[in-house]
Amino acid sequence: MKDYRKNCSKEELEYLNTYDSGKYEKPSVTTDIVIFTIDEEDDLSLLLIRRGGYPYKGSWAIPGGFLEAGKESIDETAERELFEETGLKNIHLTQLYTFGKPDRDPRTHVVSVVYTALVPKTQLQIRAGDDATEAKLFKIKYDIDGLYFKNGSVMISKGDLAFDHADIIELAIKRLRNRIDYEADAFALLKDRSSFTIYELKRIYESIKNRSLDTANFRKSFFRSYLSSGRVRDRGEKREDAGRKPAELYEFIA
Amino acid sequence: MKDYRKNCSKEELEYLNTYDSGKYEKPSVTTDIVIFTIDEEDDLSLLLIRRGGYPYKGSWAIPGGFLEAGKESIDETAERELFEETGLKNIHLTQLYTFGKPDRDPRTHVVSVVYTALVPKTQLQIRAGDDATEAKLFKIKYDIDGLYFKNGSVMISKGDLAFDHADIIELAIKRLRNRIDYEADAFALLKDRSSFTIYELKRIYESIKNRSLDTANFRKSFFRSYLSSGRVRDRGEKREDAGRKPAELYEFIA
DNA sequence: TCAAAAGTGTTTCCCATACACCCATGC
DNA sequence: GCATGGGTGTATGGGAAACACTTTTGA
């Protein structure tokens, strides 16, 4: 792709060098990230920032940032943004959806490519980025009005979020719930992917699905889906620290 | 969303009115569309256009066009583009993925939001749009080197396609194959959604999955998945035109 | 001894797959 | 009568779900 120009005719090179990219009015492009984690109380939660500038100043939002054209890919914009907010690199980001209505940002037409990140709470170092006064984890909860977010006594309803971020988060949760059944997403949320017990994994599934699962059935499907396919290895060790029967430790491969 | 400005402070209004969207270099944004159909010979095929201008002049590509910022959403850009190439409106478009590497287009950084459209061949009026000299349907075929495209005696290999369109098409096919198992996508490819036989539907599944299916099992899963859930209705009529046992006709609801 | 997590065994039902077979029609 | 597509019945096997049960530990 990089050396396309090397095989060009003079005529085409001339075209490329004089190409005017301003023929069409261009939108701004941002990436926003829905960062999920499992908190100390085994609840599914996500990172919200409090906007420090206009628009939606003071409102809560998911972190995001502008793509700098020519300098980085949209994936790289998302990675950079994730690092700024959490101090994390080499986290697997999954592209969720692209939002592009002209009026979704009051400043100008902003096309937002949204990513989902799954990060283990233990590695999280939350910091407020450039445009934020605060950054916090919120539990994902439900009541009759649907989704809301909770940190201690602070409650945030869908309507309190900036831009169309409530829609974005709802889509991200829906997708996460679906993906958990056929992708290995849950492993990304483990404190330690190379040494975990079946019940630690089960708790993650329960948090995401928001219901309790049958122990016997969970372990059977764990053995079938992961152990027998070689994606998970039995370490042959046990976790003996807790006040209960020692549990077998497993390791997630790649 | 539209009346955000009505609830603003003077200070914020001032900010919005003087907002400079040129702080960051902006990429161009396009939508490209992978248009699938089932041809006369019951083969899965897609629409390719032959590029009339630089870059990749003369190469085959999927149709696409630039988003005009402020005037339309990315969905609308895709709808407009689909209409220009096929004369079709009100076709369901599914967003596939967004591609955003800086060098994927030699002109400038182009972020492309790719959509998939499933259209019945009978309604297709193929026309070459602005930037194309030709537009044709190509069968999707496989050999040892993987994917290629075929129209009569014309063969196009992955390497012959413009930009990163080979990657895009491969992803679109993969996604279509997956979706067919849990979404009602196949119905969109029927000649007539409100009057079809089980075997017409079966042929579409076979084309997409690229293998033959068991008759008895297909009808059982059809009854379970669609008829009993009310998404498909038995018309109580039969198709009697062909030289064989008359087949029951069904209607897809919504 | 008891709570709580860790782990086992069994039964039931649904669904995917395979396959053998019959039916109606036009040529 | 026969090719072709239309349509039925049955058997097998695996997985999801429900549930009853045992084991091990620290407090």
Helix fraction bin of chain A: 10-25%
Number of strands of chain A: 11
Q: Low-confidence stretches of chain A at least 5 residues in length (pLDDT < 50)?
A: none
Instruction: Identify the CATH class of the largest domain in chain A.
Output: Alpha Beta
CATH topology title of the largest domain in chain A: Nucleoside Triphosphate Pyrophosphohydrolase
Rough outline of chain A: globular
So, CATH architecture of the largest domain in chain A?
Alpha-Beta Complex
Commentary on this structure:
The structure is a homodimer of 254-residue chains. Chain A folds into two domains: 28-179, Nucleoside Triphosphate Pyrophosphohydrolase, CATH 3.90.79.10; 185-252, Orthogonal Bundle (Arc Repressor Mutant, subunit A), CATH 1.10.10. The two termini of chain A are 29 Å apart. Helix content of chain A is 24%, strand content 30%. In chain A, strands 1, 2, 3, 4, 5, 6, 7, 8 and 9 form a nine-stranded mixed beta sheet that branches. In chain A, strands 10-11 form a two-stranded antiparallel ribbon. Chain A is built from five helices and eleven strands, in the order αββββαβββββαααββ. Chains A and B meet through helix 1 and strand 5 of A and helix 1 and strand 5 of B. The first copy, chain A, binds a DNA duplex (27 and 27 nucleotides) through helix 5.
